[in-house]
Model the fold of this input.
Amino acid sequence: MSAHTAHTELRLIGKLILEGELHCQTGLHIGAGKGSLEIGGADNPVVKDAFGRPYVPGSSLRGRLRALLEQASGLAVPSELVYLSRRRGQEVRIHQSDRPDDEICLLFGRSAGRLERVEGEPLEGGVATPARLTVYDAPLDPDSITPQMRENLDDELTEVKSENAIDRITSQANPRTLERVPAGARFKVRFVVDILCEEDKALPARLAEGLRLLEDDTLGGGGSRGSGRVSFANLRLVWRPRSFYAAGAPEQELLAGADVAALQATLSAPDFPSRLTA
Done:
């Protein structure tokens, strides 16, 4: 846990900007929902922007990082989870606590108000905490879909994976199709971490931990069936102090052309907090 207390004062010190590439090691499926089903199309289409290009929604990437960090921290247990939605068959549970030093809540934010716990007494959240982490939508790099790849795709930018579910009693097959962005595609990612107090300088290391966990996990749907393996590359880390915004001071490049391991080493170094000056 962090050194935050209930009396920690928040005032912008600066922003850490992390940009880079998300590489698809296998096909990636982030669903668009049933509302976008087209005649003759895949049963499960991927989400696309206004130009018809697949992208990775910031909410999907942010939510997966949060879930992985909650699991790694031992917080994905009933006593630590609250309901965001209790609609039957569509329950949504996330971790939230009222502890001022809870790094998950500090990084991803928390809302005030009464929330029902999955197990135990309701959580009476008295204070809202601003999210330090912002995750932007990640657009597709069109150049990553090569002419050779296009020759074997089912659509201009995507492939269709056919799957079968087998009934264990009757052995009846239930075929389905899954639209995926193909392996080899790249997306441009951008993360921003607001440093609002001295204690916040320990939080970026949790982001690096989440990215490293994700590289050995999956993103999107169909992960247990082979989809969604990703990696991060060409990461660039920049520090923009408060004076950058107030007086046009220069930004400071802390890392360039790096992978997640190098990013984690930088953010976890003992001297890293001292490099983040206003």
